[in-house]
Amino acid sequence: RGMKKKWERDLEMLERFCFHYHAIGKQQAVRVEKKYSEYAIKIEKLNEIGNDDDRSTSLETVLREMRDDLVGVKREYVQLDNFTQRFNEELDYSKPSKRLLVKYALSRINHHYENGTGEMSVDLGMVNLEHILPQNPKKWGLNKEDVEDYVNKIGNLTMISKKINSTMGNKGLKNKLDLISGSELSINANLIDFIENHGNKWT
Hints:
The protein is mainly alpha-helical. The protein has helices at 2-24, 30-45, 52-77, 80-90, 99-113, 144-147, 162-165, 173-180, 186-196; strands at residues 127-131, 157-161. It has nine helices and two strands, in the order αααααβαβααα. α1 runs parallel beside α3 (52-77) and α2 packs antiparallel against α3 (52-77).
């Protein structure tokens, strides 16, 4: 189980790196493709080590080297200010090709709120994206032009079961929160707490 945890940790690190560097940062793939190949070859060659303990120790050394290498690449080419700007630009519901990536990002936020226990694994095929402030905000006393700059951004989105989503429509905030409260996802429990702690206001 200990080795599995190590692999899970390093796979999650690779996943986070790909999200930062490729999906959001839009950095050159050629810069890291050679690194991926080199580390894969190093790991494959560990099979030549006969002793299990020695092989495990050598694997940890290679993985640590890989982690340090990729963290350095990320820090050099995807700095925080750049990442934050790109995060807001890329994760936009109005771009259909980005919607699965939006779901992924929200699932990682939910994972964070679950404290990384993995007990509530989100099946992205079973949830829909939901606008908190609706795209047609007439019942909120607004028109589409008032909200067009931010209504489709990830900060105005959550994910919800398809069953709950089908009842949402363009309801006002109170009615929408009543429905969202039926969700089992931690991201939605935190969303409700946030709104309640800010005077039951969203805009």
